[in-house]
Backbone:
C-alpha cells in the first residue's frame, strides 16, 4: 500500500489513547482536591486496570517489564513530591508518561512511509494439526477424510507428497516457516517461548520492501506478544474473553495464576476478520479447528457414521501426553479417530471460505504445521513428543502464476516456505552467515530432512538419556527413514511400505552415527514464557501435575 500506513484500527486506538490521557489528567486534577496520595497513584491504578481490558490484536496494552518499573519509580517520585508545590505537575506528567509508553510501544509504525507494491497478493494458510495421510494422494494407509476443497486446490498447485514439519509443535514449526531456519538453528523448541528478535523474519523483510503485512491466528501459542507479531502491520491473536496479565510484580507471589479464559477461537471467527486480499499484501491465516479435543459438527460426524460428536474429555490430557501410560478405552480411541477425521471435513469447509475470497492471480501456500498421533507408537491424540510420520508428516502445496500443477515425491521440510515467500515477493535470499533453505518453486534437490522432538514440558524430561534434552530425532530420505527416541531403540523404516513408521528395521553403524550427530546438533534446553504456562496447560501442551515415576 502506498503512502502513510495507518489502519482504521490504529487510528481508533490513537483517538482512544488521547481520550484516556485527557480522562486521566481530569481525574488527577479532581483527586488533588480530595487526596494528594490518590492523585499520585491514580495513573498507576488506571494503567493497571487497563491490563484487564480485552486484548485488541497487536495493540494490547502491554508494556515491557523495564517500562513497568520506570512507571513505578515515577509513582514513588510523585508520592515523595506530595508536600511540594510540584506534586500536581508530577502527577500529570506521570499520567502522560504511562500512556506515552502505550502509544510508543504499539503505535510506532503509524505514519511510516513505504513504497507502493502492485504485485498480486501472497497468502499463507496454515492448518494446525493436519496429518497428510488423512487426505487423498499422500500415500497413507488409513481412511481418508472428505476434503473436496483441498482436493480441488491440489489440482491447481504444486503439491509435496512428503512434506515434514521440523518439529510437531505449533509455535516452533511456524517459526521455521517464517525464518527458513531449522529448530536447531532458531532455538524455539517449545510452545510459549519468545521468538528472538535477532532471527531473520520474512514478514519484516516483506514489510520493509513495502508489502502490507497482516496475520490472524487462532490459538494462544501464536500470541503476538511472543515476538511473532514483528513485521506485521496488523496481527490479531485475540480471542473472546481472553485477558492480558497484569504487571510482572503482581506475579512474584503467584497472585495471578491464569493467562486467560479462552485459548483459541473457531476458524469462522478468525476468517471473519479477513474479507479481502488487496494487491501488495501478504496475509497469514492460521486455523486451529483440527486440533484436540476434536469438536466436529453434527453434519460432519453424520457423514462418516458418527452419532456422538462430543469432544474428547479434558481429563485425557495427562494420558495423551504420556506415551508410557495410555489407558484410553478402545471404543473411545476409535471414536476419537472418527472425531479427528470429521474435524478435517469441517476444516475443509473453512478452506473453501478462504479460497473463495482470494483473487485468482494471488500466490497461495497451504501448509499444515504438523500432524497428530492417534494411536501410533503408544501415543494417543497428541503431538510434539515423537518425530515419527503421524506427528510430522503434513500437507504442503503452492499455487502461483506460471507454476505448473504437479505432485512432487522428493521429501521437503517446512523450512522451504520462507525462501518461497521471498521468491514470490521478489526479494533476495539471505546470504553470509544466515543459513537458507531452497524454496519450492524450482527443482527440488534430494536432501535429508531432519525432524526432532524435545523433552521439555513432558514427563520424564529430567531423566538421564543418551539423547540428552532430545525426545526423538529422525532423518528422512526418499527411500528410508532412520529414527531414535527415548522410548525405542534406533531403527530404520520404509516410507513406502510403512508410511506410519511402525515396523522398525536394523540400522547400520554409519546411520547410528548420523542420528547421534543430529541429536547433538539439535540439543538445546528451552522453556516457555511463564505468562503462557496456563494457556499451554489448557491446550494440552503441558501437564498440570507430575505423575509418580513408574
Residues:
Amino acid at each position: 500500500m502506498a503512502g502513510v500506513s495507518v489502519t482504521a484500527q490504529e487510528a481508533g486506538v490513537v483517538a482512544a489513547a488521547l481520550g484516556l490521557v485527557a480522562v486521566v489528567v481530569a481525574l488527577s486534577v479532581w483527586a488533588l482536591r480530595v487526596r494528594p496520595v490518590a492523585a499520585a497513584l491514580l495513573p498507576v491504578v488506571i494503567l493497571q486496570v487497563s491490563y484487564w481490558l480485552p486484548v485488541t490484536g497487536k495493540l494490547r496494552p502491554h508494556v515491557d517489564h523495564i517500562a513497568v518499573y520506570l512507571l513505578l519509580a515515577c509513582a514513588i517520585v510523585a508520592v515523595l513530591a506530595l508536600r511540594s508545590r510540584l506534586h500536581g505537575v508530577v502527577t500529570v506528567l506521570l499520567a502522560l508518561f504511562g500512556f506515552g509508553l502505550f502509544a510508543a510501544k504499539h503505535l510506532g509504525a503509524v505514519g511510516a512511509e513505504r513504497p507502493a507494491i502492485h504485485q498480486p497478493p501472497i497468502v499463507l494458510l496454515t492448518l494446525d494439526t493436519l496429518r497428510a495421510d488423512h487426505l487423498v494422494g499422500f500415500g497413507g494407509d488409513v481412511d481418508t477424510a472428505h476434503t473436496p476443497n483441498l482436493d480441488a486446490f491440489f489440482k491447481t498447485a504444486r503439491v509435496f507428497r512428503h512434506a515434514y514439519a521440523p518439529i510437531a509443535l505449533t509455535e516452533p514449526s511456524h517459526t521455521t516457516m517464517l525464518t527458513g531456519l531449522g529448530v536447531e538453528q532458531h532455538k524455539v523448541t517449545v510452545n510459549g517461548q519468545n521468538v528472538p528478535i535477532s532471527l531473520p523474519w520474512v514478514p519484516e523483510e516483506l514489510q520493509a520492501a513495502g508489502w502490507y503485512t497482516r496475520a490472524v491466528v487462532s490459538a494462544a501459542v501464536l500470541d503476538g506478544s511472543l515476538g511473532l507479531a514483528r513485521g506485521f502491520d496488523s496481527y490479531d491473536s485475540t480471542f473472546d474473553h481472553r485477558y492480558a496479565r497484569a504487571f510482572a510484580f503482581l506475579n512474584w507471589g503467584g497472585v495471578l495464576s491464569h493467562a486467560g479464559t479462552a485459548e483459541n477461537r473457531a476458524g469462522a471467527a478468525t476468517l471473519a476478520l479477513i474479507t479481502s486480499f488487496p494487491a501488495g499484501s501478504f496475509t497469514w491465516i492460521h486455523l486451529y479447528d483440527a486440533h484436540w479435543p476434536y469438536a466436529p459438527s453434527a453434519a460432519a460426524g453424520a457423514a462418516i457414521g458418527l452419532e456422538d460428536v462430543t469432544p474428547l474429555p479434558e481429563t485425557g490430557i495427562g494420558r495423551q501426553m504420556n506415551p508410557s501410560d495410555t489407558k484410553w478405552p478402545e471404543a473411545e480411541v476409535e471414536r476419537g479417530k472418527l472425531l479427528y477425521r470429521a474435524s478435517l471435513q469441517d476444516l475443509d469447509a473453512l478452506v473453501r471460505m478462504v479460497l473463495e475470497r482470494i483473487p485468482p492471480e494471488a500466490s497461495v501456500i497451504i501448509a499444515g504445521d504438523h500432524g497428530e498421533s492417534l494411536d501410533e507408537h503408544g501415543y494417543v491424540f497428541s503431538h510434539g513428543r515423537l518425530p515419527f510420520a503421524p506427528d510430522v508428516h503434513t500437507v504442503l502445496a503452492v499455487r502461483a502464476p506460471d507454476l505448473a500443477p504437479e505432485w512432487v515425491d522428493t521429501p521437503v521440510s517446512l523450512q522451504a516456505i520462507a525462501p518461497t515467500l521471498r521468491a514470490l515477493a521478489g526479494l533476495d535470499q539471505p546470504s553470509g552467515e544466515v543459513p537458507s533453505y531452497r524454496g519450492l518453486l524450482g527443482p527440488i534437490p534430494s536432501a535429508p530432512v531432519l525432524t526432532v522432538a524435545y523433552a521439555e514440558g513432558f514427563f520424564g524430561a529430567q531423566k538421564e538419556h543418551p539423547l540428552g534434552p532430545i525426545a526423538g530425532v529422525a532423518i528422512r530420505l526418499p527411500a528410508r527413514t532412520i529414527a531414535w527416541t527415548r522410548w525405542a531403540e534406533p531403527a530404520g523404516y520404509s516410507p513406502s511400505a510403512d508410511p506410519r513408521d511402525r515396523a522398525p528395521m536394523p540400522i547400520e553403524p554409519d546411520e547410528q552415527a548420523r542420528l547421534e550427530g543430529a541429536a547433538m546438533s539439535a540439543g538445546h534446553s528451552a522453556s516457555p514464557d511463564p505468562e503462557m504456562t496456563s494457556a499451554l496447560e489448557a491446550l494440552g501442551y503441558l501437564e498440570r501435575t507430575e505423575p509418580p515415576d513408574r
